[in-house]
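Lecture notes, continued. The same structure-token format from the folding unit now serves as the input rather than the output. Read the line below as a description of shape only.
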């Protein structure tokens, strides 16, 4: 059953995942908006990540879902009320599948590999089949679903995030209060944390890189969540460089800060994808995760730094091969400084 796009007025996208997953859904939203400029395009996001799309021009409404049964029942009621023509599930989780099915959309698009795949009437076997390549990026996997349903995606749009004026004003004020009153000064943004220890470059190494950048006239701002504030304090104590620390920024403020920064350095994480989505030159340090799948999806200059091991990629919950994640721990400070130099050369050329 093909989709008559001339009669499509309402499109639903379901994406119940983390920060990075949401950022990497923006190319699909951009492709949809470009293809259907007059259509209503809505997305279901988890409550804690939803603010990242504040001010986005490629989506009309963000429908917020939390983990409670009452919230999920409310989402289902709202989806059914809106009478969608097409629904894309960009993540194959069970809850996402039920939201997609419960929307009542005539056309429901997902992968063959999704659990309860019989609930979809448009299914794609794999992104590799669509793109005719062995390895695909997360953004390409999502775009492939759209492409299989007839949405033009051949140019593979890059990730993009909105920067709200309110968030930028807040960041400029916070920076000024921290001693960076020159709104034109270059700053480096660090994100030294990660949910998995197999993706976390040692804090003492970040401290040395901060000292290198300070010697070269670039102050450092380090960010993390409230639960990661101790790690940020450890970084500050470990380094002789003055490091400005923020552990209470909202997602729109993080986006604004990333866009205000001249350089991002961090582990493979959602914050790295935010930096990529606002075209900030980036050095991303990879450990256990899949580089082909999670590298920055951007045209901005970027460097990924890694040591290759036969056990990569892995789930990252533990290091079964060595007991300690050599893939991330053995990356040296000199390698990151060399990557920074390569970025500077790219920007100068």
């Amino acid at each position: 059953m093909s989709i008559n796009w001339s009669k499509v007025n309402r499109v639903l996208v379901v994406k119940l995942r983390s920060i990075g997953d949401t950022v990497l859904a923006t190319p699909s939203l951009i492709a949809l908006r470009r293809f259907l400029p007059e259509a209503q395009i809505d997305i279901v996001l988890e409550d804690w990540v939803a603010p990242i799309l504040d001010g986005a021009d490629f989506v009309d409404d963000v429908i917020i879902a939390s983990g409670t049964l009452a919230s999920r029942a409310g989402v289902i009621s709202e989806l059914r009320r809106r009478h969608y023509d097409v629904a894309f599930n960009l993540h194959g989780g069970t809850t996402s599948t039920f939201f997609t099915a419960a929307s009542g959309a005539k056309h429901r698009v997902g992968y063959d590999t999704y659990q309860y795949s019989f609930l979809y009437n448009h299914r794609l076997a794999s992104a590799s089949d669509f793109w005719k390549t062995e390895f695909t990026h997360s953004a390409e996997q999502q775009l492939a679903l759209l492409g299989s349903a007839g949405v033009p995606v051949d140019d593979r749009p890059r990730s993009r995030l909105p920067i709200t004026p309110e968030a930028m004003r807040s960041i400029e004020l916070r920076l000024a209060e921290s001693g960076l009153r020159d709104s034109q000064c270059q700053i480096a943004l660090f994100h030294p944390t990660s949910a998995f220890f197999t993706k976390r470059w040692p804090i003492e190494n970040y401290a040395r890189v901060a000292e290198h950048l300070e010697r070269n006239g670039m102050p450092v701002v380090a960010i993390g969540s409230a639960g990661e504030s101790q790690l940020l304090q450890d970084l500050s104590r470990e380094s002789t460089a003055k490091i400005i620390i923020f552990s209470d920024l909202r997602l729109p403020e993080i986006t604004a800060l990333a866009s205000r920064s001249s350089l991002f350095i961090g582990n493979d994480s959602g914050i790295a994808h935010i930096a990529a989505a606002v075209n900030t030159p980036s050095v991303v340090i990879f450990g256990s995760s899949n580089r082909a799948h999670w590298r920055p999806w951007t045209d901005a200059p970027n460097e990924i730094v890694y040591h290759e091991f036969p056990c990569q990629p892995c789930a990252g919950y533990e290091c079964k091969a060595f007991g300690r994640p050599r893939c991330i721990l053995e990356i040296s400070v000199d390698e990151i400084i060399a990557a920074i130099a390569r970025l500077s050369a790219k920007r100068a050329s």
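Point for the exam: The first helix runs from residue 19 to 23.
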